[in-house]
Amino acid sequence: MKRLIVKPLMLFMLAIAGFQLNGFGAAPKPLNVGLAKVVITPEIPVRLTGYSSRDFPFEGVQHELWAKAMAFGDAKKGYRIIITVDLLGIPHKVTEQVRDALAKEIGILPANLSICASHTHSGPQIGNIISHFNKPLGPDELAEVALYAMGLVPKLKGLAMNAIANATPSLVSHSKGEVKFAVNRRTSINPNGVSDHSLPVMRITDLEGKTKAIMLNYACHAVTLGPKNNVAHGDWVGEAQIQVEENLPEGAMAMVVIGCGADQNSSPRMNNKKPEMDLVYAKDQGKQIADEVNRLLGEDNWKSIRQLPEGKMKYVELTFAEMPDPRKLAQDAKGAGRTSNYSLLLLGRMARSGDIPEKIDYPIQVWDFGKNLVMVFLAGEVVVDYAIRLKKELGEDRVWVNSYSNDMPCYIPSLRILKEGGYEAETAMIGYEKPSRFTEDVEDIIMNGIYSILPKSIK
Fold first, then answer.
1. Of 196, 200, 206, which is closest to residue 15 (Cα–Cα)?
2. pLDDT tens column, 286-324
3. Phi-psi region of 107 (alpha: psi -120 to 50; beta: other; left: phi over 0)
4. What is the pLDDT of residues 392-414, one digit of tens each?
5. How far from each other are the two terminal CA atoms of the chain, in whole angstroms?
6. What angle is formed at CA 120 by the lines to CA 345 and CA 236, rounded to 5 degrees?
7. d(Cα 310, Cα 248) in Å, to the nearest integer?
8. What is the 3-state secondary structure (H, E, C) of 250-264?
9. What start and end residues bound the annotated signal peptide (predicted)?
10. Cβ 222 vs Cβ 119: under 8 Å
């Protein structure tokens, strides 16, 4: 009896056959994918952001905060890079500086880099919502915010370059699960408030099928920890990354991007009587995600991604409904608390130059992974209606929507929410130093912008 000699090429062909049998459909095509991560926890205690009541630096590090990168492509075909950061948001200026640095280094196109924030409310202030605090930051605190943001740019550029350097032929696929700890927080206004409980997952493996990375998306605020836990922490997002990685082969990486969760809170959350329970809640929510990812990895309904993503980007103008009255701002600025801080900041800007924006340039980005997946990146705090509408119009399993991407201008309400009013439509603008709510055409402008750059195969 002759001994069977299995050569590397035969192993690869067997792997392809295995993928075909396991529900991938067409044979997978290797893509060059690189991965890297770096700690971005502040080196000294600073003010955490997201809750206005915190008025002193963090008291410990419960979780390291991470930036992680996934790079597709090579020098010949060009690079496409997605970076996740454990921060409340990413200012447009930081994104642009990272893009400029990488453009000089590797010639990357703006549409082929996206930076997505986890929206953890237990991360450092980075200049997104300076007026969100109950009292103005002191000079030393402002200096720390500036220094942190300045240091983040070279760190993210280096992270991207490391991911490129680590790129190897890989197999890429995606699937979708579900977890249900997100709840619509506007139920006092809308008893039938909707949520998006879908959990799209992207898997990167080597050519033998060993998992190298998982990237997942869930539409929910990272607010499980309340302000009484004054520690650096990734919230449920950080726990999900930790616990997913614990279930993967050694060295594999988990990344989390946030869906349209601006009006969605984690539940349970923020136990003010027993703040230590927040840590327990976050662990449980992370476990729910890790368990669902594990379930998906054991099933056969993964779809192969056979092409490098093709990026497109467009900016649209969103208009504010009205300009503030300086006398009303002056009256409010004489008080105390978050709104008075906002009024004083806005009044100072008006007194210096009248430079209050009537419009903002809003970035929309699309990555086309082929006929069965398109990824949409939206800036700011986007409410769930956008994802629900896109999935209804384009197909539940074909569209993956990330918010908190590339910029953090403010909340992005839908027409429905603008008509209902409330925090996401109006009062949240105070924290972002914006003059008022948006005009009612905001949803149509954004949706038309998305459709204008979607690939023909997905429309």
1. 206
2. 999 999 999 999 998 999 999 999 999 999 999 999 888
3. left
4. 999 888 999 999 999 999 999 99
5. 57
6. 160
7. 29
8. CCCEEEEEECCCCCE
9. 1-17
10. yes
**What is the 3-state composition of the chain as percent helix, strand, coil, each rounded to the nearest 5?**
35, 25, 40
Taking the C-alpha atoms of 36, 42, 43 and 46 in order, what is their torsion angle to the nearest 10 degrees? 180
DSSP H or E stretch at residue 267: none
Listed in sequence order, the residues at least 6 apart from 275 whose beta carbon sits closer than 8 Å to its beta carbon are 226, 228, 229
What single string gives the DSSP state of each residue in 30-92?
Answer: -EEEEEEEEE---SS---EES-TT--S----BSS--EEEEEEEEETTTEEEEEEEESSS---H
pTM given for the model: 0.91
Q: What is the pLDDT of residues 254-283, one digit of tens each?
A: 999 999 999 999 999 999 899 999 999 999
Instruction: With beta carbons less than 8 A apart as the criterion, state whether 177 and 309 touch.
Output: no
Structure tokens that stand for 40 in this block? 């971005």
Q: Which helix (H) or strand (E) holds 102?
A: helix 92-106
Tokens linked to 359: 């419009």
Q: Which strands form 374-378's sheet, in the order they lie side by side?
A: 310-319, 359-368, 374-378, 399-402
Name the pairing type of β-strands 381-382 and 359-368.
unpaired
Which is nearest to 425 in space by CA: 366, 459, 385? 385
φ and ψ at 209, to 5 degrees? 90, 5
**SS3 of 315, please?**
strand
- Record the tokens describing residue 124, joined without a space: 């450092």
What is the per-residue pLDDT for 228? 92
Q: Is pLDDT of 348 > 90?
A: no
Contacts 24+ apart (CB under 8 A), 351-357: 351/326, 356/323, 356/324, 356/435, 357/320, 357/434, 357/435
Q: CB under 8 Å to 188, separation ≥6 — which residues? A: none
**Dist. CA 363–CA 445, nearest whole Å:** 12
